[in-house]
Every structure is written in structure tokens, then in C-alpha cells.
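Repro:
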Amino acid sequence: MQQQYEGYKDLADSLKSASGLLNLERKSQLHQDIITICNHLVNPSFRIAVFGPFNHGKSTLLNAMLGNRTLPIDLIPTTGASITVKYGSDVRTRIMLLDGTEIYRSGTEILQQFAVLDGNRQMRKDVASVEVFCPHLFLETGVEFLDLPGTNDRDEQDNLVREQLLGADLVIQLLDARKLMTLGERENLRDWLLDRGIKTVIFVANFLNLLEPDEQKQVQNRLLFVAESFRAELPPGFSNLYRVDALPALRARLKGDVAAANSSGLAAFETALQNIVEILQPDRGSVRLPRVQAIASQIQLSLKAKIDPISIEIKSFDDKQNSKIEIKQKAANLIYKGFATSIEELRDWLELPKLLTKYQADAAVALAENKFKDWQTNILKKDLNQLQLAAVKWLYQAYEFFQEERPQDLIIPFPSEPQVILPPKPNNNDDLSEPGSIAVGGGIGWLLGGPVGAAVVGSISYLLNKNIQKQDEQLAKESYHQEVAKLCITAIEDYFSSFSSQGLSILAEYERQSEKVICFQFSQEPGEITNKRENLQQLQNGFNRLLLELEKVKILSNHQPYKEIPKYTTTNRKYSPQPERVKLSPEKDPVIKQQQEKTAKNSGTRVEFVSPPPSPKASPSPRPEEVEAKFRDWELNEEIARMKAEMQSPGSQTSKQQNSTQSNKAPNQPKTQTEKDKITRAYDILGLQTNASQAEVKQAYRTLVKKWHPDLFVNQPQLLKQAQEKMHLVNDAYTILSDK
């Protein structure tokens, strides 16, 4: 039993805590009900309340049961306070005032001063509680009687009665047989008892003795109907309807007239009451918890009315923030992917073997012809600038998007121009009989001048192409122009070695510095939202705790516990993408491939690579991988531009729904046969069936672009014209099917 009451104490604490979260007015009905039910939950006594309109004989009935004039029946109907009757060794009264003053008197005469209505039929405002102690065996078992003021007199009295009924384990509703169950009594039965979970109710009919025999029979039939229509939760075998003539019963009890007491109905009622209490008293929780359930339901609904709007507001804020963060993360990852790819291309270009393979021959020849500086400016620097700009542009994209640290330009300087110290000229410097010595006939010549200079240039090409340097080194005697050619080749190799080493070092440092540019800070949460989040957490915790305590005492609820709301970090955190180094195979890169698939439809723009105007000197056709790189850069740029636009209104459920609706919407039916023919022809141009999906349309378009783009045929005039016509048709077909 003690463990059970500890559980009830926790339940009472959670009810009070939840009430505090609601900020209820102290005089509000719900606040008063919560205080009453919480006090009642931990009250070890079994309380019986006598309830009914004024002048129905409530105090008279109680005095008859107690066997004396304990209560001031001569003051009726002016009883102005609820009087609790408890066990005591002698009759005495205790009055507690609101200011904390305690008045303790022998007997009950003091009730006339504190428990009556004044001349204006108003209750005293300074009385907190009234208790009467009485030596009675029934009370000694832990039972308390509660004599309530009469109802249907004043609103103030009605409010007091309504509040006190929640603190009663058993309610005796006194009825006047002369005017049985008035409209007010029926409303009170419904609103004050049934709707609040109070169903342990016994009806007692008074004044039946004042009616004629025929009237008594009619009233008894009506009483039976009232009792049967109200499903009281009493122990099995006990009626919820009794007849007691209160005043005759009191007189008989005072005189000790047992027969008269029995004929008044008092004895039968007392016996039934004691037996009912004996059964209900050990398990008072089953009586009290339905009232708790009714009050807890009101609290939960009130809490939800506060929780849900705040929760919706915070979720909306979180959705917008998460959407912004998601967009920024995607943008950062995309930018980093493009940057890393460009850096990898530049790093690959700067590798010494690649530099030597691509440039050593031409550079050595330029050195031999005394044109190295021009070659460096027009060829090497031009190629380097293109690669550097390709990498730097991603950092400027990041700066424009995130506004973090402004990027620096990537500058890789060139080493000093190679210097070659000529060996002494041999006497047979006119000997041009060595293999490859005139590979470049009629050259401009070098400081050596004349045909010897041309022979040096030819030897450079010959030695690098034939790879016979090692064989020549084994010769006891080398030709002079081959010896000079080797010096040029070695000087260029030293030049590129220095250029590669320094360039790779600068590139590595530049890549490290890029982390400060391709990143963004998670913004702090506004103080107003933080306060609401904390308030919401308190409300949800109170709601969940109440739900848990209700479950412990087996009170079912239709509500589900709230999940803990995500906490928003207020510390400045930084997001920096750190994917693995990108390899030079974009066609196999799933991230780039995914972005390419998204962009072709989202952008609504066709791919247009503008071919450079033809130069007098034919330029080599671009390789397919170069076209692929252009296509990839274009799609990444389009995706980042789309994200910038989306950042203007992130987290908009409306736009998402609109996009979803548009994507799921059935295609518009063509209105004319001409439009139908255009669509059919567009499918045919892309090599598709008329029922092909948008994904298939996009893939077919990509395939044809890579196959027929004019950039691939710059040196093939006939095919170039054909490609231009083909791309015109492909673009038109894709536009028609995208707008369909």
C-alpha cells in the first residue's frame, strides 16, 4: 500500500508540474481541480461527500448517522463552508484561516461564526478549511464525511461544491422526493460528476414520508428509473438507491428508538454504506484514478494546444535551415569536385615525365634556335594559364557562393631561361655525316651558325625520337652537333625539373589554402528561436512525464509521447568538403554523372560549345575526353547556378510540392496534328520510341552531343558541316521533348 501511494505521489507531482507549464490562473477551474485531485491522491482517508441542493437535509442525514447533533442543522440553509468530519476522541472544531491562523475550539458552536452565510447570503472570504472531530466507530476506520454547502443558491457556493466533489471517494447525492431530479440536479449529475470521472455515487431520497401513500409509490418508481439510468460503479450486489427520512431518523437515533430508525431507512442505508466502504477503501486508487484521467486529459489537450504551434514553427525554421545547409553542402561538394578535378589535371600536367614527353623536343629546338623565350610565352605559358584559370575559377565560385575568405590567384613562375655553355669546336666542325644531322634542313641556325646549327636542331629531334643517347655515350668520340644537342636536351630537362618541382609545391600549398575558401560557417540560431526551443522542450518533457506516470497506474491515453526535438548547436561550426582526390576519369565519376543527369533537365538549357573561328593554320581536333571535360564543366556550372537560385527561398514546401506536382503531372496532350508530328519526329531524331521516358531522352541527347559536336570535326570540313546540321536537329528535338 505504501508503494502504491508513492506512485500516486509521483503522479500528483507530474500533474502539478504540467499545470505549472500551462501558466493557469490560480482561480481557473482547471487549476483548482488539479490542486484538489493532487491533494486527494495522497490523502490516506476515505472521504464520503454529501451533496445536493440547499434545504435537502444533508446535515440532518449526517447527524442521524453520527447519532448526535454534531452539525448545525438549525443553521440550514445558511451553511456557507464545506465541513470535514473526522474521527476524534471528543467533539471539537478546528478553523484554518487564509492568513494561517488556526482556531481550535471544543464543541461545534464556533461553526455559527465561521461556517454560515452572512445577512447577504455570502460566504466568509477568510476561511481556508473547517474540520469537526467526532468519536464515532465508522470514522475511526479512516472514513471522513464532507458536508457540502447547498447548491442552486449562489454561484460561489456551487463552485466550491464542484471543486470539493473531486476530493470525494464516494458521493451521496441527496434527492428531495417531493421534486425529484430537477433540471439543475440532472445537469450537476452530468457536468460535476459523470464528465469528471466520478461514478461512485449513491442516491438517497429524503422527505418520502411527507408524501401520501399513492404518491410514494409513484415516486419510488421514478426513483428506480433514475437509479437504473445511472450506471454507478459500486461493488457488485449493492444498490445505488436508498430511502432515508432524515429528520425522523435523527429523532429516532437521539431517542435510541431502534424500530423508528429502521422504519426511516437509516439502518439499511448505514449497513449498505459500511459494506461498500469496506470493499472500496483498501483499493482507493480504482476510485480516484478515473477522476485523474478526466483531469489529465484536459491537461494534455491544453499542453498540446501550446506544444503543437511552437513545434510547427520550430520545424519550419529547422526545415529552412536544413535546406540551406543541404544546398550549401551540395554546392561545396560540387565546387570542391570541380576544383579537385582541375587541380588534378594541373598536377598531372606538372609531372616531370609528362612535361618532358609533351614539350622537351620543341623546347630544346627553341633553345637551339635562340627562340626559347618566345616558345615559353606562346606555348608553355598559354597552356599553364588555361590550367591555372580552370582551377582558380572554382574558388571564385566558392567565394561568390559562401563569402568566406577571398581566394588568391594561382601563380606558378617559370625558372630562368636555360643556359648552355658550348664545348670547344672541333676542327672537323663541317662534318655532317652523322645520322640525323640534317633532319631539320635549312634551319635558322644558332650561335654556331650555318649548317652546324641546323645539324644541332636535327640531332635534338633525332636523339629524342630514336632514344639513342646511351648508345652514343658509349662512343669514344661524338660529333660536335650531337654533343651540343645533348647539352640542349639536358638543359631543358633541368629547366622542366625545376619547373615541375616548384610548381607541384606551389600547387600543394594552394590546394591547402583552398580549404579556407570552399567552406561555410553554420550560422547561430536566433535567440527567439532558442527560447522557443527550450520552452518547447520543457512542455514536451512535462507532457511525456505525465504520460509515463499515467501508464504506471494503468491509465490509458490516446496520446503518444513527443520525440525529443533536435538540438540546434549555437557554436560556430565550419563545413569543409574533403572527398578523396579526383582521378581523371569523369565519365566514371558517379557524383559528376549524377549532376550531369540532373542539370540537363533542371536547367532547361541546351549544351552549346562555340567553336573557335578557323585559323590560317589548321589546329588539331579536340579529343573526346576534352569534349567530355567541357560538357562536365558546363553541367557543374549550371548546377551551381541552380543552387544559387534555390538559396533565395530554401525549404519552401510549396515550391517542392509544385515541382513534385509538375514532375508527376501527365504531359499536355498536343492540340494539333502538326504538334503531334513534331514530337514524333523529335523522338525519331534522338533514336527513341515515342513512349521513352525523360531520363531516356536526356541520355540520348548526351550521347548524340558527344558524337556529333562540331568541335570534334574542326579539321574535317565535310564532316564539320554535317555535324553542325546534325547538332541543330538534335538541339531542336531535345527542346521539343523537354517542353512536352
